[in-house]
Please model this.
Amino acid sequence: MIIEFLLSILVLCITATMCSLTSGGFIWEIIEPALLPGTLLILAMMIFLSGYGKSFIKIFSSAKKIKKTELPELKKIEASLSFSFKALIFVSSFFMLIGAIYFYLNIDERQTLGPNLATIICSFDYLAFFGMILITLKAKLRRNIITYMIEENDAENENTNLSKKEIILRTIKILIPMALIIGLYLLIIFTSTINNSNEEPLSFYYLKDLPGLIYIFIPTFLLLAISGNFKIFFSALKSVFKNQKLSVSQMALFENSIKTFRTLLILEGILAALGGFMGMLCNLEDRSALGICFTMACVPLIYALLLNLILLPVESKVSLLCDSE
Model:
């Protein structure tokens, strides 16, 4: 899986660089000389102390070695990746909170605000960056485990051709709840928030942000392809729309692909948002650039949240389509 690891780093480095340049910042501004290596070293020591050290190192093996690995060891490697992601959350959150405390304690001293705020943002950035790599590798490994466990007599899909009437009815059943959800969200926003400006933040002018669309979709789909779940993801959407019965192995593959895509969306949204906020901090004196940077910070994460709201019911429907309890 060393190839998948290197490809994931390449995709995310290019994304982070382009995002920084678009928002007016610079990529080296998110590289803290002590925080970055320190976070990785603490994470490595936690993996070693957990007993997953040997299993975690095996993710850097070649594809041939991974294919020859027995099922129990594959599960240990998957468990090591799960532990690593949880540990990364705790380590990054610790430094974020420490940075927030120091930011508050020294709020009257302007020369300390920048470094403390940088610690908060960079910790969050490292969580999103390395978390996406771990999620991609875990999705790839999970796919291998499910494939390994598939029985030869696994039941095939029941392919049913839907009539035009059935397609229309299914589309209406999807669109009506979505319209109601959107309407309720708008109602809550307009009744629970106050906007005295002449601009409407939910207008198409703000949500049509092309860089935001690029940064949220292209890296996510590339990482999904690296994990080997690209075709499986669209097969899952097709099966849900056609209401096809699924075998246990198909359900596991589809759930893995959708869950991976949802998680990558959120982390990529966070990564893009942090790039936008970093651009704002670098251009505080240029008020004309603040709006662009703030849009860059918010819009990708809005897209990620909206897509997660759509994919959550899809993921639930996949489990209901399984023909085995």
In short: Residues 151-158 have pLDDT under 50 and may be disordered. The two ends are 33 Å apart (CA to CA). Residues 135 and 247 are 25 Å apart (CA to CA). The chain is about 80% helix and 0% strand.
